[in-house]
Amino acid sequence: MHEVLEQVAKLGVVPVVVLNDVKDAAPLAKALCEGGLPCAEVTFRTAAAEESIRIMSEQFPEMLVGAGTVLTIDQVDRAVAAGAKFIVSPGFDPEIVDYCLSKDILVLPGCITPSEVAQAVKRGLKIVKFFPAEQAGGIAMIKAMAAPYTMVKFMPTGGISAKNLADYLSCDKIIACGGSWMVKGSLVEAGEFDKIRELAQEAVEIVKESRGK
Ligand code: 3PG
Predict the structure, then answer these.
(1) How many CB atoms lie within 10 A of CB 37?
(2) What's the 161 CA to ligand 1 centre distance in angstroms?
(3) Is ligand 1 within 6 A of the CB of residue 156?
(4) 162-201 burial by CB neighbour count: b if 16+ within 10 A, else e?
(5) What pLDDT is stored for residue 213 in this prediction?
(6) Nearest-angstrom CA–CA distance, 12 and 111
(7) Which of 42, 46, 69, 131 to mutate to test the pocket of ligand 1 (most atoms within 8 A of CB)?
């Protein structure tokens, strides 16, 4: 498995971040690192994404920083130049996937139907995002799709929290879960980085317990 995917699998959780202000990037990264979850998928839903990826990657080299909500090739280039180690898209965009593969960039496209998984398999992808996880059928849907596509594993995101994280991680077709519950915009904007650290710690504990370690 790709070294970055091994790290993702080991962590078990990928915090999905929406940052409105670059000033929050460093304190947020610090809180996640201190909470034992040195990872962030910084989404290109705001103008602060690119610079936030740069700040986190440069100031927290121990952190695994990727880009989420990547919808264009220009965003792929900007994310990677800023230090992103992986690219996540909500859906399966063949143009983005093929571009990333041609540049040897790790890409996790969203796939919630067998037809989308088939396109990923055709391109040799082993891990895809499953978004929006809860709304699209959750673990039952993942298990059903993994039955024919035995070579594929999933990173579900959307509607996952401390309440259902352990259920998802109990499925061996899931390498990690993405989620925003520990890095909610309201917490970031209120400067509640201690709370974010605590929620990250809680997530780490759930991962440990669910894996029996
Ligand atoms: C994503 O982009 O992966 C989701 O918006 C995260 O979903 P959540 O906010 O329900 O965790």
Answers:
(1) 27
(2) 10
(3) no
(4) eebbeebbebebbbbbbbbbbbbeebbeeeebeebbebbb
(5) 57
(6) 19
(7) 131
Which residue in 41, 85, 153, 173 is the catalytic one?
41
User: Whole-structure pTM over 0.85, yes or no?
Assistant: yes
Which residues, at least 6 apart from 188, have a Cβ–Cβ distance to it below 8 Å? 17, 19, 20, 24, 28, 196
What is the pLDDT at residue 211? 84
Q: What is the DSSP letter of 174?
A: B
CA end-to-end distance (rounded Å), the chain: 22
Is residue 66 lining ligand 1, measured as CB closer than 6 Å?
no
pLDDT along the chain (213 residues), means of 10: 93 97 98 98 98 98 98 98 98 98 98 98 97 97 97 98 97 97 96 98 97 73
Instruction: State the distance from the centre of ligand 1 to the C-alpha of 176, rounded, in angstroms.
Output: 13
Query: Does 41 participate in catalysis according to the annotation?
Result: yes
Residue nearest to atom 4 of ligand 1 (CA): 158
Q: Are 121 and 148 in contact (CB under 8 A)?
A: no
C-alpha–C-alpha distance, residues 95 and 26, integer Å = 32
Determine the pLDDT at residue 123. 98
